[in-house]
Amino acid sequence: MHVFSLRHSLVLGLLAVGLLVGGLLAAPAQAADPTTDATQSIDVGDVPDPGLVGRTWVPNPTATSGLPVVVGLLSDPAGPCVSQDGVYRFVGTGECAFIFQQSGNVDWASAPLVIATFDVVAAPTRTVVQILPEEIRVSVLDTGAGSPLTPEGTVDLVVNGIDSGAQILTDGSVHLETALDAGMEHTVSATYVPAGTDDDEVDVTHLASTGSDHRSDPGLRLRVRSTRKPTASGWYRSVVKVVPVCWPTTAAIIGGCPAAVRLDEDTRGTKVTQRIVAKDGGKAVATTKVIRIDTTAPSVRFKGRRCRAGDATSGLRRCVVKKVRRGGSTVLVATAVDEAGNKAVARKRLG
After folding, report:
1. What is residue 5's three-state secondary structure?
2. CB of 103 within 8 A of CB of 20?
3. Is residue 59 reached through a cis peptide bond, with omega within 30 degrees of 0 on the bond before it?
4. I want to staple 130 with a disulfide (CB 3.0 to 4.6 A). Which of 96, 137, 159, 343 is the partner?
């Protein structure tokens, strides 16, 4: 943006004279006497720096005298700045020039003419890519100051390094229905190509931009917990809890991490499977190893002096008979142990 006074430029002074003669600038109602009239100056106020295509501007200049300031358009009235009832609309790219005049009155000398010039440029954009469970969504946003316009044009989409071609923007966005496979990482990038980019006769209203999104599956691990460690053969003899441990990667997990699973029934073998899904469609599945639980002690009895034992779930590991002296008596003690480590004892007095 450039603002300068015509008093300091001979060339611009000549331009101002021509404008005055042509009728663009208003002649003072009464000639001012620079030796007696008070001097004044013009402040053009806020001027776009730069202007953006599609926006509007209402000049608000002031004079130190408090008298109204006349605004005139020096550049081509057909654009890029177009006037309508004191409001200037930026309809294309290029340079706009304005002249500001306050011609004075019986008390004030005319103010130096002020010219302000600035460029009108295409509005900046931001391209946002979102990987969703069933689609890829691309939005192109006008990020310039003031009232934004909806960008028009196409988006060049690349999915995992493979060009998916140009997609036409509708209301500033593209929706590509596709579900990306779980179990692998995905990267989607998009490049916004403004309408008119390949046409020298069409003014581009927005600048190009790029964006990308990356998707990784969330993490899921299952921890098997019990108050007693399993035996070497993998048998638990107490309640087992399967506790999921989750961590998000590129998006939050829908519904959070699953609750722990409690296993309190005897089983010769079971597995627990848990699944999670992230908001961007990433998935994870985890399954435990085979879990064997036997919380029931084996059965044990005597047949004569021999041990007879059995176990319905994990199976019998051993059954041992020992003689124990108690007072004046001898007692046979049979101890049966199953594969999960549960014990059962039977006693038999001799004599």
Report:
1. strand
2. no
3. no
4. 137
For 335, the 3-state DSSP assignment is strand
**16 pLDDT more than 50:** no
The pTM of the full predicted model, rounded to 2 decimals, is: 0.71
Q: Which long-range contacts (CB under 8 A, 24 or more apart) does 195-204 make?
A: 195/152, 195/153, 195/154, 196/153, 197/153, 203/53, 203/91, 203/92, 203/93, 204/93, 204/122
Give the C-alpha separation, 35 to 64, whole Å: 18
**Strand, helix or coil at 13?**
helix
Residue 47, SS3 per DSSP: coil
Quick: pLDDT tens for 40-91: 999 999 999 899 998 999 999 999 999 999 999 998 888 899 998 889 999 8
142 and 149 in contact (C-beta within 8 Å)? yes
Contact 218, 253 (CB under 8 A): yes
Q: What is the DSSP letter of 6?
A: G
pLDDT above 50: residue 13? no
By the 8 A CB rule, do 332 and 322 touch? Answer: yes
Q: Is 197 helix (H, G, I), strand (E, B) or coil?
A: coil
Here the tokens at position 302 are 């005597």
Alpha-carbon gap, residue 87 to 198, rounded angstroms = 31
Record the tokens describing residue 224, joined without a space: 């098997």
251, two tokens = 């998006």
Closest listed residue to residue 2, CA positions, set 42, 43, 47, 40: 47
Residue environment code for 274-311, b if the CB has 16+ CB neighbours within 10 A, otherwise e: bebbbbbbbebebebeebbbbbbbbebeeeeeebebeb
Q: Provide mean pLDDT across the span 7-23.
A: 41
**The residue type at 20:** L
Q: What is the mean pLDDT of the chain?
A: 89
The confidence score (pLDDT) of residue 326 equals 80
Q: How far, CA to CA in Å, does 271 sit from each of 240, 268, 274, 346?
A: 12, 11, 10, 35
Give Rg (Cα) of the chain.
Answer: 43
d(CA 346, CA 309): 10
